[in-house]
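B., you asked whether I could sanity-check this one before it goes into the benchmark set. Here's the sequence:
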Amino acid sequence: MRWVFYPLVALAALAALTMATAAAIAFLAWPKLPSLEALTDYQPRIPLRVYTADGYLISEFGEERRSLVKIQEVPETLRQAILAAEDEHFYAHMGVDPVGLTRAALANFRSGGHSQGASTITMQVARNFFLTREKSYNRKLYEILLSFKIEQNLSKDQIFELYINQIFLGQRAYGFAVAAQTYFGKQLGELTLAEAAMLAGLPQAPSKINPITNPARAQQRQRYVLRRMVEAGFINDALYQQALTEPLTTTGGSAARAPEITNPVHADYVAEMARQIAVDKFGDQAYELGITIITTIHRDEQEAAYEALRRGVMDYDRRHGYRGPERFITLPDDATRDEVIADTIAEVGDFGDLYAAVVLNVRTAPPAVEVYRNGQTIRISGDGLKFATPMLSETAPQTRRIRRGAVVRIRNDGDKGWALTQLPDVQSALLSIDAQNGEVRALVGGFDFNLNKFNHVTQAQRQPGSSFKPFIYSASLEKGLAPGLLLPDEPLTYPAGVTGSKTWSPHNSDGKFDGWMTMRDALAKSKNVVAVRVLERITPAYVQDYIGRFGFDSASHPPYLTMALGAGSVTPWEMATAYAVFANGGYRITPYVIKEIRDNTDQVIARADPPFAGESAPRVIDPRNAWIMNTMLQDVTRRGTAARSRVLNRSDIAGKTGTTNDYVDAWFCGYTPDIVAVVWTGFSRPHNMGRGETGSSASLPTWINYMRPTLNGLPERALPRPPGIKSAPVADESGRQDFYYAENEPPELPEDYVLDPFLLPGAAGDHRDAPQPPLPPALPAPLTPAPVEERILPPLRPLRP
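And here's what the prediction gave me:
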């Protein structure tokens, strides 16, 4: 029997030696184990989150996406699924499962390696917080010792809660709360049994067993978890069978999923502004402190702005024709074709609802194309292809022709089906603010943030064109002019000796001259020549001073006559700020996008305190000026260049179009007494958008499409007429009356009066009740044309007494 006895003795001796060695190591290692402060004072990395004012998540920033939950918030079904998958005896053992550990040790002994672990939930907590994932007996021993220490100091529910919040589950999701959002777009309490089992299977290998990237393996793991739940007595066979047949739909792993939303918020430019503010305030720690930023954005208005801007840009793009495919690839005829297409689509990416696809077949009569995307062949014909039909012909330029292997864009137009489209070249921006306090209600800085991250609302310095004229007319009211005064819309030339460079002849955008007209009509029709005459009368230097009241940087508007044509530079942000002064009755407000900032305990650490018009906001222009300008800008929308806004059927809309030379920039700045919205359209690198692409055609439709849903339900409101305004007949044959400041009483003129004086009494330029503008900054180097010298001015026809 020696052949039996001696091996048993040897094995027993080896076991005893191993245990003695382990005990010695444990004795020596125990005092050196790390403090459990990381567990008892749990401070995980929680990302920066940005929300709308009405509670919808816009975006989050940080390497680890995590939402902390209490163990009581975790549904029993999910807890049971986790226990069945990871540690059935968790609530019975002291940190180590002896049965599981023995089973794993035997398996590893047979394989000669470390093929199998026996980590309990406590051991996984020890490893995730304190150790590496290295597979060695030494590391395993430390893991066991730490587990004992954790069990001595924390309750089972505390340990389980740490595990549920800390564990990595793929797609940058840490913890089961974020995993539920990431994979299923749900809160924990909304998970079904099948979904809970799917999530519970992820800790083993979150990258490999992933329902988004590897649904087949994820389903295999889910079935294992469900089977283990039956074996553990957590569910019965009926629930097991029901869960097996339940179809699962994943969200695609969107980082914008959260419990508060059912639909994403398209506010990437706002999120980036919030991120920059957070980093400026907190440094790089902003990404892991659990800071929450509540913006002023309202989801419905933001979505209206996003949709309106995309529609406006796409309409412009269609007007200018199809430019051709983005690129061409060679399509193999074998089974690798689908893989080549998938790689190409992944490389070029999608942008919103503009999806990448690859052309398989082309037919010219009748026109039709077949494109392939994500395993689906899509046929496009009829109106869906009309936009690009010329590029189907074999005579089309090779670099622009639609042919097999062409990488194109497609879009689903709902009931109209799929259509061929393209990524637009042109850009646009929309900013909407509360006229009373500057709260930003919607902001879209470009067509698509992922396509172009440049924020055209805050960063694009562009010429405002005629949308700048209201500020010149406002300045003229302070110099004694009035909207009913007549000026000649006639050819005007400034010689080189006056301009300091070359002869300059301002002209109207339509190339026509309409003779004598009121300032009101000139603004409504956007007459450049009349605006130049007004500016010449009141002097560019005065206007440069005056516009500082509206928030403009005077240095960006040199004091030359071209100021009348909007030759300075502005941002949409500045234009919204300035137009708000007219909208609210003369008060300067400051737009702001951050409502409040909260820490990871939901305590408010910063909150906006904006000044309100009529309260703490400073008055910057005479209330009479604001009221009269409002009536003039309402005429622009009723019978002037923005008349198409009448489709909104409101009487309280006012605004001004703007178009720069060669159709480079197109603007519409409009408002009601409550909301100011500015739309700009143009190329990021300024160049001609095409003849006819004016503010009224390229930007006003976007403004209308935004304001239509935004104003729905808001009552019309008129600015109250302030005292000190009188009216008198206009000195023409129309019989109209118009307004003027009471102190600028028109003189009584005899019937044969010669109309040569220009200014009315009281028009010497003192501001009366209006505040004085600040001193002008140092002027920049002269531009063309130079300041105008003293010259004989054409007469002005005053109001009739």
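One thing to flag: The longest helix spans residues 2-29. Otherwise nothing jumped out at me.
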